[in-house]
Design goal:
By secondary structure, the protein is an alpha/beta fold. Helix content is 38%, strand content 15%. Residues 1-152 form the Flavoprotein domain.
Length: 176
C-alpha cells in the first residue's frame, strides 16, 4: 500500500511520528513549515532532504500519481479549513484536493480542540466530499498504561480505517 503522510503545524507531532513507524508499506512524508517547528519543539527532531510543503510540482500534487491514502496526522484546524474550502496553496492541501477529486482515501486526524461552529462545518464539508475526519481521541478501553500506549492506540485506529490494522476492538473477545 502507498501512503502519503502529512504532518501539519498542530501540536501532537508524536502521533505523526508513531504512525509513520507503525504503518506498513510504502510511505511518503510531507511536513509543513509549522509541522517542522512542532517536530523540533515537541520531539527535538529536525528534518533533512524532505519534499517541502511549498513544492507544488511534487508528484503528490497531481492525480496522475496514484496513492492509496493521504493521512494528515496531526492535522491543524487551519489545514482542515483550507481542505474543506478547496484551498490548495501548499503541497499538503494540494495533495488533499487531489485525494478528494480522484476519490482516493483522505484521513484528517485533527488534534486541536475545542471546535468552533466554522470548524464543525468544515469537518462536515470534508466528510460530505468523501474524506474521513478523525479527531485524535485514543481508545481507552485497551487500558493503556503509558503515553506511548495511548498514542499507539490512536495510530492503530487510523491503521484500521485504512484496512491495515488488526488491533483489538471494544470487548472483541465476546465476538468469538
Amino acid at each position: 500500500m502507498r501512503i502519503v503522510v502529512g504532518i501539519s503545524g498542530s501540536s501532537g507531532a508524536v502521533y505523526g511520528v508513531r504512525f509513520l513507524k507503525r504503518c506498513p508499506g510504502e510511505k511518503h512524508l510531507i511536513v509543513s513549515q509549522w509541522g517542522e517547528e512542532v517536530l523540533r519543539l515537541e520531539m527535538g527532531l529536525t528534518l533533512n532532504d524532505l519534499k517541502g510543503d511549498s513544492d507544488l510540482a511534487a508528484p503528490w500534487s497531481s492525480g496522475s500519481n496514484r496513492y492509496d491514502a493521504l493521512v494528515l496526522i496531526p492535522c491543524s484546524l487551519s489545514t482542515l479549513g483550507k481542505v474543506a474550502n478547496g484551498i490548495a496553496d501548499t503541497l499538503i492541501t494540494r495533495a488533499a484536493q487531489v485525494a478528494l477529486k480522484e476519490r482516493m482515501r483522505l484521513v484528517l486526524c485533527v488534534r486541536e480542540t475545542p471546535w468552533s461552529t466554522i470548524t464543525l462545518r468544515n469537518a462536515l464539508a470534508i466528510s460530505e466530499a468523501g474524506g474521513i475526519v478523525m479527531p485524535v481521541a485514543p481508545p481507552w478501553y485497551r487500558n493503556p498504561g503509558t503515553m506511548s500506549e495511548v498514542v499507539d492506540g490512536f495510530c492503530d485506529k487510523v491503521l484500521g480505517v485504512l484496512g491495515l490494522g488488526d488491533a483489538p476492538g471494544w470487548r472483541e473477545e465476546e465476538t468469538r
